[in-house]
Design a protein that fits this description.
- This protein has 235 residues and is of the alpha+beta class.
- Helices cover 30% and strands 32% of the residues.
- It has six helices and 14 strands.
- The strands form three sheets. Strands 8, 9, 10, 11, 12, 13 and 14 form a seven-stranded antiparallel beta sheet that branches. A five-stranded antiparallel beta sheet has the order 1-2-3-7-6. A two-stranded antiparallel sheet has the order 4-5.
- The longest helix is centred in the middle third of the chain and has 23 residues, at 145-167.
- The protein starts with 5 loop residues before the first strand and ends with a helix.
- The chain binds uridine-5'-diphosphate.
- The site of uridine-5'-diphosphate has 14 residues, from strand 9, helix 2, strand 12 and strand 14.
Length: 235
């Protein structure tokens, strides 16, 4: 499968068309952004790690009943995926307080929740990805009620699978963001990526942050943290 015209270039990935209209090629870059693009940088080797980690986790999720866009890893940075129309929602699941949750509600990071939280942001850079209630998503016709229920069920399933996966590797899944897409027939599948860019992953013993917070917060050792978490993934 060959890359044809570039369809889109995002902050961390480029997307290309292929000979097959139902398939796309994603090419992961080392570029990193934070705070809605205000902070920019590069994390050497990140594209390779995010590509491989996302593909590995999506294949596990497939076996657990979550359909994903993953088709085939083509190279270190390139993956063949099913073409979807992205549902313009960022679906965020949290197991432990951190980031915007801690900030918005004035609590410290590290509070372990009895139940995971589910929240949605409207994927819209111009508006700064505002938080949105499920009824708002319906009012805006971003999704149908059936799609909203399906997306919520899948997101909670992803959390159960990944929480358990990382726990076995000495890593705590604090929170993460996922995105879904619609196939041509309307079927909802998991799309985008699951990586240290989109998850908070803390060492279960030491609490060390092994994710993009090292870049966001200038904690240093960013590349090392990405390499460390990739090592943990492979066990
Ligand atoms: N997240 C993401 N993209 C975004 C916003 C958040 O991947 O545009 C991820 C982030 O890495 C974290 C989770 O979603 O794992 C929750 O992020 P939060 O709402 O706390 O926002 P942040 O503090 O990162 O701004």
């Amino acid at each position: 499968m060959e890359k044809k015209a570039q369809m889109y270039e995002g902050k961390a990935k480029k997307v290309y068309e292929t000979d097959d209209p139902s398939l796309l090629i994603v090419d992961y870059k080392d570029d990193a952004t934070a705070f809605n693009g205000l902070k920019k940088g590069t994390i050497a080797g990140k594209g390779v790690i995010n590509n491989q980690m996302s593909n590995f986790l999506m294949q596990i999720l497939e076996t657990k009943g979550v359909p994903t866009h993953f088709v085939k890893e083509l190279s270190e940075r390139e993956t063949l995926v099913r073409r979807v129309t992205i549902v313009p929602l960022e679906v965020i699941i949290r197991n432990i307080s951190a980031g915007s949750f801690a900030k918005n509600y004035g609590v410290e990071e590290g509070i372990v929740f009895e139940q995971p939280t589910v929240e949605f942001s409207y994927k819209n850079d111009a508006l700064g990805d505002p938080l949105l209630a499920p009824s708002h998503a319906l009012a805006l016709k971003l999704v149908t009620e059936a799609e909203m229920n399906q997306i919520t069920d899948y997101a909670l399933k992803v959390n159960e699978v990944l929480k358990d996966f990382w726990k076995q590797r000495g890593v705590t899944l604090v929170d993460f963001k996922i995105e879904f897409g619609r196939l041509a027939d309307g079927t909802i599948i998991l799309a985008d990526e699951i990586s240290p860019d989109t998850c908070r992953l803390w060492d279960s013993e030491t609490g060390k942050k092994l994710d993009k917070d090292r870049f966001r917060r200038d904690l240093g050792g960013v590349e090392e943290a990405y390499t460390e978490i990739m090592g943990r993934l492979k066990g």
